[in-house]
Specification:
alpha/beta; Rossmann fold; 2 domains; 7-stranded mixed beta sheet; 6-stranded mixed beta sheet
């Protein structure tokens, strides 16, 4: 997604002279086009993320729209206090961009992983987080971030292209549709690629609808509340369970009286064996790999359905 991000940022910077881009000494061999396009509006703040966000807040106060770029753990964890106090509480148009969300930086280890980032940020006041699952979602999300001009976080990863039949409902994209689905999968970010691979298994193919959550906090329309009630629901996210998609979604559903027949969460489990590997290795340890997802969906088919009454009846 980094290439799509760089191209979209170049377009946005050309269209809006109030856009400022600050990097925490990262983006080499990827953002040179922005250096050429922005000139003095491209600032390298060095390895000083707290100062980067403080500088951005000051510029935002003077009427600029400021992007702060680094890898996800650096742009979130290192400057959380500054983002909360200087940006969110004052509703400043400062936008954090974190590359390599989840286990994206693999073998570089826990210091370079961001598996709690959305929990840290989505609970702050006045902030919206954006989690593209597919590369072609990055550009429209950036347009929305700039248009809203409020505190925001964009979590980048590595994803393909949105399926042609996808349509937006609230803060979700409906990407796999079936006439009468047995159940539903809701995924967060590019890990949905593992879900799509899992659904190629002939035992479960054509039985489950798939959605991606594009933003936290969530907007769950009544239409989805009805669809997801009284059927199995699987949530898949490369993020810890606490403060993640499954926890936030379950609160939304229960508040509106929706009760899935079964609710299962597959989430980042940290480092259960104390070892590091590439992103696929950590996904496998956490049960986020296609094989485990297939097994979980197969288990849904083998479990008896409870006699639950759908919402609204």
């Amino acid at each position: 997604m980094r290439n799509e991000f760089a191209a979209a940022m170049e377009r946005i910077a050309r269209e809006d002279e109030k856009v400022i881009f600050i990097t925490g000494d990262l983006g080499y061999n990827a953002l040179e086009n922005l250096v050429d396009e922005l000139g003095p509006r491209f600032i390298n703040a060095g390895v000083a993320e707290q100062n980067m966000v403080g500088l951005a807040a000051g510029m935002a106060y003077r009427g600029y729209k400021v992007f702060c770029y680094s890898i996800a753990p650096f742009t979130v964890y290192r400057c959380l206090e500054q983002f909360r106090n200087d940006v969110c509480l004052h509703k400043m148009p400062v936008f954090l961009v974190g590359n390599g969300g989840g286990y994206g930086y693999g073998i570089m280890g826990s210091t370079h992983h961001a598996i709690e980032d959305l929990a840290c940020l989505s609970g702050l006041q006045n902030v919206n987080t954006y989690i593209p699952a597919f590369a072609d979602e990055v550009s429209p999300m950036l347009d929305q971030i700039v248009a809203e001009a409020r505190p925001a976080y964009l979590r980048l990863g590595a994803g393909g292209q949105t399926p042609a039949q996808a349509n937006r409902i609230g803060t979700f994209n409906h990407i796999v549709k079936n006439q009468d689905p047995t159940g539903t999968v809701v995924a967060l970010g590019p890990v949905v690629g593992n879900v799509l691979t899992a659904l190629q298994d002939e035992l479960i193919s054509g039985l489950f609808d798939v959605y991606t959550a594009t933003n936290l906090p969530l907007d769950v329309p009544a239409e989805l509340v009805h669809r997801w009630s009284a059927k199995p629901l699987l949530v898949v996210e490369e993020h810890v369970s606490i403060g993640g998609l499954a926890q936030q979604l379950s609160v939304k559903l229960l508040t509106q009286g929706a009760v899935p027949s079964h609710f299962t969460s597959l989430s980042a489990q940290g480092y259960p064996n104390g070892l590091y590997g590439d992103q696929k290795y950590h996904q496998r340890l956490s049960g986020l790999d296609p094989t485990t997802i297939t097994q979980q969906l197969t288990n849904f088919l083998q479990q008896p359905f409870t006699n639950l009454i759908p919402v609204g009846h």
